[in-house]
Amino acid sequence: MREKRTSKPRRKSGRRHPLATVALIAIGLAVTGGAYAAINSSTATADTRPVASQSTIEQGEKLFQANCATCHGMGAAGTSAGPSLVGVGAASVDFQVGTGRMPLAQTGPQAEQKPVQFTDDQVKALADYVASLGPGPSIPADHLTNGGGNAANGAELFRINCAMCHNVAGAGGALTEGKFAPALTDVSGVHIYEAMVSGPQSMPVFNDLNISPEDKRDIITYLKYVQDNRSPGGFELGSLGPVAEGLFIWIFGLGSIVALTIWITAKSN
């Protein structure tokens, strides 16, 4: 009788299906594209204005060439006197020009705020022109800058991210090399938001991945609360903080007590 041959199990070759690599690439592209679209959609919520017309962009270009090209170049590509503005976005231009910091009056450690040199329409035209040169942060929507957020959350975020330079009450403070963090007591919500997304001077950029648009709204809400509700305890002492206020009490308070004690002792003799 013939013995039955037992069939040995086939070994797996370990080779992938030819379409497996293509499928993995397609899945990777889909995930990457979805994440990119989600990020773009979250950052696009700050834009409230319609697409600029060609006539507005042309008007902005003329204004730019007449007032800004000396430092930033005819195509805003930058020169030795000024940086490139390609990709800074409309928010940066609206902040710098809308607060009077630009055009720069004189060179110094940083551009200081001064009376605005252009009308609102001209500022908008300049912003639209620079925005047309490359993608960048847009001017924020009204609902993000009108102070309708959570002041308590904004206060916590401000203390963590901003108070080390601007003071916990937004009173400003000195920095190195003659620079300073300006006071935020009289700054509009739009310009506060634009400063966060554009990072002027020594300020870091807080994009939507660092601080979400809603959290930026909460920070603005807190600053507006501080502006509208002054110190209920009496003199603010410039809102310089507990060290300065304690020093004031130590010098003037205890000094007054010592002087009064000496005066009473002299009278009793």
TrEMBL record:
Gene3D superfamilies per UniProt: Cytochrome c-like domain
Record-listed heme c 1 binding positions? C68, C71, H72
Record-level Gene Ontology MF annotations: heme binding; iron ion binding; quinol-cytochrome-c reductase activity
Could you describe the post-translational modifications of this protein?
Binds 2 heme c groups covalently per subunit.
Instruction: List the EC numbers from the record.
Output: 7.1.1.8
Keywords from the UniProt entry: Cell membrane, Electron transport, Heme, Iron, Membrane, Metal-binding, Repeat, Respiratory chain, Signal, Translocase, Transmembrane, Transmembrane helix, Transport
Q: How does it sit in the membrane?
A: Multi-pass membrane protein
Oligomeric state and partners?
The cytochrome bc1 complex is composed of a cytochrome b (QcrB), the Rieske iron-sulfur protein (QcrA) and a diheme cytochrome c (QcrC) subunit.
- Name the UniProt record assigns to this protein: Cytochrome bc1 complex cytochrome c subunit
